[in-house]
Amino acid sequence: MFEALKGFRDVAExxxxxxxxxxxxxxxxxxxxxxxxxxxxVKNLSKYLIAEIYxxxxxxxxxxxxxxxxxxxxxxxxxxxxxxxxxxxxxxxNGDNVTISHCKYILHNPNSSHSVVVQMNIKKIVGIEPVxxxxxxxxxxxxxxxxxxxxxxxLSCCL
Length: 159
What we know:
3 helices; alpha+beta; single chain
């Protein structure tokens, strides 16, 4: 009888740990406007393996655990000529603090020369894949290996 109670307790703890983990997935961590040369505090960013940064023209993924931001992305301006745009974001991460050192884009006009390099802003940061909580690692076998298995599908190049 006591074994059955222990089993139910283990299942309850596992469900609680999964609920905690899933509550962090795909969560908007910050919304606003931030430009080059500024630092913002993004609550709980340090609890993520993968986050997504949205700009005026596109978005890109980062690994907050790495301490660096290096994003290059493309988009188009729409309209009749569907002008391609390339943007990039560089910066650093220290815990929950994000410092943006560069956030720019350039238009590739198909019928004339390129535009000048133009400053743009970051609009949103979304936490995609959280670090697996300690309580859940106990059930997965623990360690960084189990944490990376969850993130592998997103950033296999960076882990």
